[in-house]
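Hey,

The postdoc asked me to send both predictions to you directly instead of through the lab channel. I've kept everything plain text so nothing gets mangled by the mail client. Protein one:
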Amino acid sequence: PEDVERLKRLQAEIHEGFKAWVRERRGRLLKADESLLFTGEFWTARRGLEYGLVDGFGELRATLQQRYGE
């Protein structure tokens, strides 16, 4: 039980750090309430776009080339 409690505290600390990171980087772009965004669930790319968690859809290399050139 003590180990489980310790792991829960660590997980909570990591989760708080993650939420702070998302707020810092996405802030005003977020389009859903934090009570939905920070539940630990995950979504499809389409839902992520709807919630303001992503900027758009794309493939990594093509997106980097579009942004920065060859």
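Protein two:
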Amino acid sequence: MTSILHLDFLGKGSDRTYGFTLGGRTFTVRNVPLAQDLSRLTKLARHHSEDCVALSGLSLQIILPQRTYQHRALRKALAGIADSPAFSDGNLVRLTLERILAQQAIDGLAVNFRDRRTLIFSGLSHYGLTELLATYTRRLIIGDMLWGFRLGLPLTSVQAFRSGAPALARTVARTPLSWFGPAARRFARRLPRFRWYFWWAEVIVGGMEYFHRYAPPQLTDKIVFTNLADDSDLAWLEERGVSTVVGLRARVDGQRLPHSVLGVALRELVQPSRDDPAEMADAFLNFFLHQKIAPEVAHLRPERDVEPALIEPPKELYFARSSPEHRDAGAVASPSEGVFAFIIHPLVYEQLLRHPTLRRLDRLLPRQWVEYLASLMQPLLVGTVRNVVSATGARAHGYIFAVALTSRGMLRRPPEVPYRKLLR
């Protein structure tokens, strides 16, 4: 059994203890609300008896694709545990898990997210989710320079955000804790700011601390992606007229686990060979996809009547999945015969046209449309290799599967899309 000390910087009330089981391991969590008391955070971080420490409400790291930045003041406060593998601020889980949960929710909602007006409070805090939503719509406003830097300058494209993110992260890492994130602001009063962007948005993405501090009294018919801590957050959003809420925390044994608690638990479970953020992210992503963690979706207002045919395409539109059982029934391996498989994919668009259906579509539709339709195809069995005999006499046969994603198509989509196809 592994014990975890969860330091909830925004939490109020008294300490509580709970447990959960994940990946066959049992974890006990002592949740300590700090009510924004930085001195108590420093004291507990340095003197505790638990195996691991999880911190919520403050971020030690800002993880970008090319580099990870650490907040200097918070690193000093967490001296002794900041570099420990037994510590997590939840950012690596946020980078991976939020993308998976949001993708599943978008796939399941009867809503067309194409070109939806989307407001993201902080791209630095939700980098992975920002990249995912940018694949659906170009009508984005990223608010790091609105509510974080308070400069009144919206970032209106993901390209602008990507180019400016390193400079923003360097600046945040060198400033006081209370300067960027609303969680550490000195005064907890509500300060409705830049209300026009709330009115403009159809989809709003960000932590509940942003909503509590900056949201106007009415958020009628908005779709909200946020980190639900408990049912009181749902009630707060329902009072303001939100139509649908997507929770971005994993539910394990009935508990909404904070990202930081899940982060230290996963470090104990996956144990990659190196403490490298990229390798850890891959290990976390692989774990989430195998565990099939589902998003929490709450419909707070009645959905409008929508023609079902416009929501879910009929299944016969998709290509039927082939399987070795009925394509190659005669090639059953004996106990002494090895079986192998290759998974291949087209490198360039022209290789997609080897599929007869796609070749016909190419005569009718633009190239981008054909490539998109190909990405919806299920993995296909495209060939078999039989009667392989090695120099020692060992025998084998194998299968060749194809995933209809070009190299460019993989780069344009979130990593969980090719992951999901590989698992299939």
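Summary for protein two, as requested: Residues 305-323, 325-331 have pLDDT under 50 and may be disordered.

Thanks,
C.
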